[in-house]
């Protein structure tokens, strides 16, 4: 992997992990469109570490309040009495559906990742979800009013992102919109809910790193991947949270639809 390829991979992973356009879809389709070798497990593992760092740094104040709130609630034997503690447990509860589905159907989802046409098709599903969420958006419920049912349903939407081409951030934001939250609240909770998922992927990627035969010979490109993913991820979190305050999700839906249709047309044309 060259330095340029490492830079592109890092930027691509960092941006698409948090923008509602599907990182998995891009990692499958970009190599297929440009006839490139898919990114190796080592590079993808490092990219995940970069996006994990980005979200931890961006929300470090929130995370500190959540962790201390949970610990204080446990010490007082009132685990959900304060808002930060309750938010922490809601995030844990909301992470269960995707984790359960991922473990139960792991082989099935891995097979789908081997077929770029599936990723392109599910990008169209992402586009449809974004349009539906935007059109049905009607609530202004604050995060403090989030219930266990709300977070479970949003967690089910996060489970959809196990399909290549369905955006995790997009599906969870839509889940939040359908439960009556505004775009800003839905997006913020989407990122917080994504931390356990990204952390889980990061822990699994560490196992890949430990068994990677090319780690020692690829130190410089891997550093580039890590830094690029972290910087682009941090920037995209900030940008999206500002964007959704005043603008909607339709531009992302259009992008997903165009990219998905483009690949499917090329796929059919080339046979």
Jot down its keywords.
globular, 0% strand, mainly alpha, 78% helix, 271 residues
Question: Which stretches are low in confidence, meaning pLDDT under 50 for 5 or more residues running?
Answer: none
SS class: mainly alpha
Rounded mean pLDDT score: 85
Major sheet summary line: none
Short description:
The protein is built from twelve helices and no strands.
Structure overview:
This protein is an all-alpha fold. It has one domain (3-270). Helix content is 78%, strand content 0%. The chain has 12 helices and no strands. The longest helix is centred in the last third of the chain and has 28 residues, at 183-210. The chain is globular. The chain starts with a helix and ends with a helix. 44% of the residues are buried.
Reconstruct the topology from this structure:
Layout: H1 3-18, H2 23-33, H3 41-58, H4 60-75, H5 83-104, H6 106-113, H7 116-135, H8 148-160, H9 168-178, H10 183-210, H11 219-246, H12 250-270
